[in-house]
């Protein structure tokens, strides 16, 4: 028998609420995912826990006997984890953060240097992850917050604006136009109307902000001279090869320079996109979380201002 804590917690929620819909909302998962989890739990136990109809959920006799045991175990486990967290954070405030790939190459080296092992008061455990992975890890509690563009509000999560970053256009430089200056020349959005573009997939938050402005100048996000790619590193490498230009946030500027790309500041209009810290709205913060997150946000803001 291989019953997981996540399965037990999900069963307790369903049993308390008598609703897969409301339990799924509380757990921040889909109804299909919750139903699959309950089927797996029942298969592991070898007996049915729930009687389901299209309109109601009821406990079976076995479920009635199993529920108080599962509920007590879940409550004791949550209390023990909370007590250990309080104990650990009395010694040091700690925050676990994941950063989306486009920002990670810029922000994670700074976070490492600012909150590394030599930092006594605040410790930051950091990693990189796609936006969807960040949300999943917030749900399971393996991270405390995520950093990314998160263009639109997401139900069940709280966003805190860290900073705004301008959108820029990058391309492989023409041989006759190689410049040593770090100053960016201006470029109007309308000049990109027929330009071959390398773009990220439409589910990318930053790409959604870019597509909104491209649509405003009359360019379809699905124009034939657009190439869709999955990863920012691929976009940069293909731009460096001359396959097309790309629109990126200015926070990626250092990475663009490593690929020796020519950069332009997009104007008429200038477009800013927000970098957000995102947390699970339903999770009870551990002791020290708020102070550590606030210190992290303030440090990143200072770092961006100095760039």
Q: Termini distance?
A: 55 Å
In the CATH hierarchy, the architecture of the largest domain is 3-Layer(aba) Sandwich
Structural class: alpha/beta
List the domain count as a whole number. Answer: 2
Order of helices and strands: HHHEEHEHEHEEEEHEHEHEEH
The protein's oligomeric status is: single chain
CATH level 1 name of the largest domain: Alpha Beta
- Main β-sheet: number of strands, strand sense, barrel status? 10 strands, mixed
- Uncertain parts: none
Number of E-type strands: 12
Q: Name the helicity range.
A: 40-55%
Strand fraction band? 15-25%
- Principal-axes shape call: elongated
Q: Provide the CATH topology of the largest domain.
A: D-Maltodextrin-Binding Protein, domain 2
Given the structure, what is the number of helices?
10
Mean pLDDT: 86
Rg result: 24 Å
Question: Can you give a write-up of this model?
Answer:
Helix content is 44%, strand content 23%. With 307 residues, the protein is α/β, with parallel strands linked by helices. The protein has two domains: 5-91, Arc Repressor Mutant, subunit A; 95-306, D-Maltodextrin-Binding Protein, domain 2, CATH 3.40.190.290. Helix 1 crosses helix 2 (20-27). The longest helix is centred in the first third of the chain and has 31 residues, at 61-91. The protein is elongated, with a radius of gyration of 24 Å. The model has no long low-confidence stretch (mean pLDDT 86).
